[in-house]
Design goal:
Blueprint (H helix, E strand, L loop, with lengths): L7 H6 L1 H16 L5 H12 L9 H23 L5 H4 L20 H15 L11 H7 L42 H26 L5 H4 L18 H16 L5 H18 L9 H4 L7 H11 L10 H24 L1
Helix pairs in contact: 2-8, 4-11, 8-10, 8-11
């Protein structure tokens, strides 16, 4: 199997998405007034939608986005053996490795229900709390009277509040939203910051899952012959909830706007499927970003092969620092051994 060559044409073509990203990010930060009319119109339309104001919107939105991205990547994985990283290490043989056993969408209902059920339970029982929403509106959405504001209801997401269950309002079915949209500057800064926070938190969480005490939880994710897009959601329920809760915390801790959260899902799911794709794609995010910043599918594929390196999901900084610390500790231990002998 011949490894695809990323020659001068490949390097030049990557500047198309890279330039677009730089232009979009730069203009969003420097000239937010350019985007404000679009954001105003978009958010006004979303606030009028009963789907967007439903308490379960983010859960269903995530499922739909994941289904689209993962199925698309799975199709490419199955139809393009030259893109598969496993075949790049199989260069001594004339034919590509056989495609690993993969599940068809109709056979993945149990996986979907396992993912959705606990999240829907939280959606339908807890009051949704977002930055920029008056406490009075949160109270009203949770079927409480305004007098409860100073008694039991807190505006911070760190204090979860159950819905006031009554016969007339048995479940938390809607969420209170901010009245105004964010600026493009707020949107960009919140997206970048939340991704960095998540990368840090998941690095620690992931590293702990490789400890022998928790290895059984994480082993399901590493139980495969060849990494492929479907491995993205091959998770123990504890690990899956941890991933979702860490993403929520990363958004909430900086007071992200609801619209930021909606866009975050698109980027977040794409990045997760990308690193598990098992493919060397020309426009993967690790190629779009400056060299050495992002882990990408190659590095995460190596993590799935060896299991003791590269724990951060999206970026390289924590992994590089961790390996530097481990190397220094090893050198110190070897030095102590030499001195003792």
């Amino acid at each position: 199997m011949v490894v695809p060559s990323h020659g001068s044409s490949g390097l030049s073509s990557i500047w198309i998405p890279r330039s677009f990203l730089l232009l979009l990010l730069g203009s969003s930060l420097v000239t937010p007034s350019v985007y404000q009319p679009v954001l105003d119109s978009l958010y006004a339309s979303l606030r009028q939608s009963s789907l967007f104001t439903a308490s379960t919107f983010e859960t269903w939105w995530t499922v739909i986005i994941y289904a689209i991205i993962e199925v698309t990547c799975t199709y490419r994985f199955a139809r393009n053996p030259q893109l598969r990283l496993a075949n790049h290490t199989n260069h001594r043989t004339a034919s590509p490795k056989p495609i690993p056993k993969m599940r068809r969408p109709k056979h993945r209902m149990v996986e979907g229900l396992t993912y959705i059920s606990p999240l829907l339970l939280l959606d339908l029982t807890l009051i949704k709390k977002y930055a920029g929403v008056p406490v009075q509106d949160m109270v009203s959405s949770g079927n409480y009277h305004l007098s409860s504001v100073t008694k039991t209801i807190h505006g911070t997401f760190l204090a979860p509040t159950l819905h006031n269950f009554t016969l007339s309002s048995p479940l938390q079915t809607r969420r209170a939203l901010p009245t105004a949209p964010p600026t493009s500057r707020e949107l960009a800064l919140q997206l970048v910051t939340s991704l960095f926070i998540y990368d840090t938190l998941f690095f620690v969480f992931h590293l702990s899952l490789h400890h022998p005490k928790f290895a059984s939880i994480h082993s399901q994710h590493h139980n495969h012959r060849e990494i492929n897009p479907q491995i993205t959601n091959q998770l123990d329920i504890f690990e899956r909830l941890g991933l979702v809760l860490l993403a929520n915390f990363s958004l909430n801790i900086i007071g992200s706007h609801v619209l930021t959260r909606t866009i975050f899902v698109l980027i977040f799911v794409w990045l997760l499927v990308d690193i598990h794709s098992g493919m060397d794609l020309k426009w993967s995010y690790d190629k779009i970003l400056p060299q050495g910043w992002a882990s990408g599918s190659r590095r995460h594929s190596m993590h799935h092969r060896v299991g003791n390196r590269y724990y951060a999901p999206f970026f390289n900084w924590w992994d590089d620092m961790y390996e530097w610390v481990c190397k220094r500790r090893f050198e110190k231990d070897m030095s102590n051994i030499s001195e003792s002998t």
